[in-house]
Amino acid sequence: MTNPSQPTSYRRLARGTIALVMRCSLWLGDDHLLAVKSTGYTEDYTRIYLKDLKGVVAHRTKSWLVANLILGILVALLGLGIINTDDLFSAGTITLMFMGSPFLIALLINLLQGPTCKTSLLTPLGPVEIPALTRTRRVARLIRELCPLVAARQGSMLRSELLNRYDAQRSGTGTTPTPSP
Amino acid sequence: MAPDGRQPFPLLCSSCHRPLPTEQCNNAESFRCPHCSVQLQVELFPAMLRALNEQGTLGAVAGDGEASCFYHPDKQAATVCSSCGRFLCSLCEIDLAGQCLCPVCFEQGRQSEQIASLVNKRVLHDSIALSVALVPLLIWPVTLITAPIAFSLSIYAWRKPTSILRRTKLRLLAALFFSGVQIVGWGVLAVVLLQKWIS
After folding, report:
1. Is residue A84 part of a domain?
2. What is the mean pLDDT of residues A6-34?
3. Phi, psi of B188 (to 5 degrees)
4. CA pair distance A150, B3, nearest whole angstrom
5. Nearest-CB residue to B116 (from A1, A6, A169)
6. Do B1 and B7 contact (CB within 8 A), yes or no?
7. Chain B partners of A5 at a C-beta cutoff of 8 Å?
8. pTM: predicted TM-score of the whole model, two decimal places
9. Angstrom distances, CA of residue B56 to CA of B48, B53, B59
């Protein structure tokens, strides 16, 4: 049991930026997730308690593809420029290499990080968007990490049972009692 | 809607906001939304089965000789406030990080920011002090004004609550150091100029 007047220790799960200005991050506390939006001088906190967490929904965005396309074209153009020069160690070639290497590094990092997505956590008050979770790979890792923690607070249930009961509720035939935390 | 009148929590596509089928959920693999064809990954937890308009109970009526709620004398006491020890009915109890608080203690804790789990915004005075100490160096004559401000801001911020995340006093120490150096620098310059003027 945690004391509400005592500071909680947090572990960072993800971090990112919003419009390259604001920083955002997701932290795991004893019994809740903490979404932080920071301007550098102020921090806004949103707590999502694990006992209330209803689900995670992530949808893929086209940012990854677009970024790969733009960076790929730039790297290809600069690469063509380098190939077409006669002297590999001329000032022009070195300048092209110097200009192209940041794009190549960015392309490789983007490829390694995997597809982008927008993630929402389903809470009793509705979906809460988490800007720190922008990669599908990270979302999958978060889900793997959250499953046992949520099961400890909400009780574990078979996938088929959970989905059947939810479908029954949606179709209006549900008579089974809802679980309590 | 369920036969008991409770509305189930909606499962919607986060892109087109239309209802999603559940067959592909909790599958660890992505699937396409049948409406907008966007690729989705959905994981549902048992709390999803709690209805949208699920609320707390109003509490049982107190009988003769039974402890009653401090705020609702006609209601049976269900628990005790962890802070003030008053008896509370199930309507008044506020569950917070495993502890039970009455509405008054909850509000007092929220206003005084004593309950860390109720803080939803913090000003990072240490970052402000460091910026005030360092950024004006770009136009250094301005530091004549900003250095004392940064120094006093650092002292003011020393006891102020900072981020609820782990954070050291390093920024404040740096702000104190840099603003202190600037103040000393201006002091030395003033003495040198004064000596020159006298001689």
Report:
1. yes
2. 87
3. -60, -45
4. 28
5. A6
6. yes
7. 109, 114-116
8. 0.79
9. 17, 10, 9
